[in-house]
Amino acid sequence: MARRPRRWRPDAVYTEVKRTVDRQFLLKPTPEVRNLVGACLGRAQAMFPVKIYWAVANINTMQLGRAPMDDHPNALDNMSRFDQLFYGLLSREINKLWDREGPVWSTRNRSEECIEDRSVEQQLLYALTNPVKDGLCEKVSNWEGLTLFGQLASGEEERFYHIDWVRWWDEGGKKNKKPISEYKKWVTVKLSPIPSWERYSEHERQTLLRKRVSKEEADFAKERKKAKRPVMDRSMRARIDPRDRPRNKKKSSPQPLCHSSTKEASDKYKIKWREFLVLFREASEKFLSGIFDVEFPDGSFRPPLMTVCVADST
Fold first, then answer.
1. Are residues 238 and 266 both part of a single domain?
2. What is the rounded end-to-end Cα distance, in angstroms, of the chain?
3. CA-CA distances (angstroms) from residue 98 to 27, 33, 142, 234, 293?
4. 162 and 187 in contact (C-beta within 8 Å)?
5. What is the pTM of this model?
């Protein structure tokens, strides 16, 4: 089955999920992993600015809510470039931390458009409370992994660091007698309020989020009690083996085309998406046949061209 073409629209919010290879617990909630994820996010956002609404590192899943900064073509390109840099940096750091080799991520990230304000709110709450839903912790504030909940709910900006290895090598590398700590560079992740909450003051947004999250936590606690399912405590999370994986293999559900709170809105989006696919495929066929000045639908990307070298038999 062909991969779904990427499309970024300037006035849309996208929710994204990327899973670790074999669902291994490579994002185990530790201070080190939390810092690595935050530092890679901050570095990628600084290089390729995008709006970030939420960012949550579950035990084996990375969840993001993003949007282009504006309707400039460079802003749309930044959405893909941000992905490449962020996940590339994080892969390298995770492998270094756990002393492993090979891929960290199973596939490219699943990205879907949230087509209504309500669906954006639903995805925000889903991402933030995902570790609670999975029984990994009792409250979002207990999760040692990255959630940026403190920044969203109380304005506590979190700082992350990475080592400037380029300057370290320039100043002698292993022969350098300076401590590595002197090469720390600090970054932050700039969060944007979801569009439907922009009309509220910062205090109102924080209060609203805390109430919504508290309600979700209470609902999950009731479900666990009814099903007699235990919840992990801090010591149990600390004993997790990052190379381990879930005991029960979970079947991957089909990727939704979009996120919507009503079937009517979803059906309308499907019609528009089919129209987009027709235009995209027509443009792709012309482009791959050698018509390079063909116009592609807004927000889409041209398919890659392969360069083939032919040896001269003479």
1. no
2. 41
3. 10, 10, 23, 20, 47
4. yes
5. 0.90
Would you tell me how many other CB atoms lie within 10 Å of the CB of residue 288?
A: 15
* DSSP H or E segment with residue 111: strand 110-114
**Residue 293 contacts by C-beta under 8 Å, 6 or more apart in sequence?**
none
DSSP class of residue 174 equals G
CB-based contacts of 61-64 (< 8 A; 24+ apart in sequence): 61/17, 61/18, 61/19, 61/20, 61/27, 61/130, 62/16, 62/17, 62/18, 62/19, 62/27, 62/37, 62/87, 62/90, 62/109, 63/15, 63/16, 63/17, 63/127, 63/130, 64/15, 64/16, 64/109, 64/127
Residue 7 structure tokens: 């499309």
pLDDT digits (tens, 9 = 90+) for 179-218: 888 889 999 999 999 999 999 999 999 999 999 999 999 9
Q: What is the pLDDT of residues 145-157, one digit of tens each?
A: 999 999 999 998 9
- Looking at the fold, whether 200 and 271 belong to one and the same domain comes out as no
In a domain, 256, yes or no: no
User: What percent of the chain shows pLDDT beyond 70?
Assistant: 96
The answer as to whether 4 is a domain residue is no
CATH number at residue 215: 3.30.70.1290
User: Taking each helix axis from N to C terminus, what angle separates 202-227 and 117-128, rounded to the nearest 10 degrees?
Assistant: 60
Q: What is the DSSP letter of 239?
A: T
Mean pLDDT rounded to a whole number for the chain: 91
171 neighbors 178 (Cβ within 8 angstroms): yes
Q: Which domain holds residue 287?
A: 262-314
